Amino acid sequence: MIRTEPDTSTEDTLTGEPMDLEEILDSLTGWDEIAIRKAFGSDPYALRGLMVARSALFIALRRAGRTDHDAHRIAMGMSARELSERVKTPDTKPGPAAPTAAGPGDVDDLVDEDEDDDPEGKASTEPTSPSGPTSS
């Protein structure tokens, strides 16, 4: 049968609303996983970075009717910018601030008050200078 209307499903995949990465990954079937393994040469769950987004685009293109070869060629041929415009990744939320080196006055934050490092109470409570304990 000859198709008289162009197949726009692939074009929609490439030009429509950005695809949601998590939705694509959550919908992977075993057949999709096998196709990713064959096309990308790696277990789908071992892929990292942009390759995860490329594999998701690959699956979306396959589902839109592209052959595995064409879908892989398109996904691999996109620049990082083009890919990020097509595949929406979850917004990254800032994590806790990285610890910084303690400055003057921050030492109390680093000391565990419950920890008993001096069981016999022999530690001096007098302030010290770099040359040793100060006398008054």
Explain what you see:
By secondary structure, the protein is mainly α. The protein has a domain at 9-88. Helix content is 43%, strand content 6%. The protein has 7 helices and 4 strands. The protein has helices spanning 9-15, 21-26, 30-40, 50-63, 68-77, 80-86, 107-110, and strands spanning 19-20, 87-88, 128-129, 132-133. Strands 1-2 form a two-stranded parallel sheet. It has a two-stranded antiparallel ribbon with strand order 3-4. Helix 4 runs antiparallel to helix 5 (68-77) and helix 4 crosses helix 6. The relative contact order is 0.11. Mean pLDDT is 73; it is low at 1-10 and 92-113.
- Output the structural class: mainly alpha
**Major pleated sheet:** 2 strands, parallel
Give the uncertain stretches in residue-range form. Answer: 1-10, 92-113
Mean residue pLDDT: 73
Calculate Rg over CA atoms.
29 Å
The counted number of beta strands is: 4
Name the helicity range. 40-55%
**Order of adjacent strands in the largest pleated sheet:** 1-2
Note the total helix count: 7
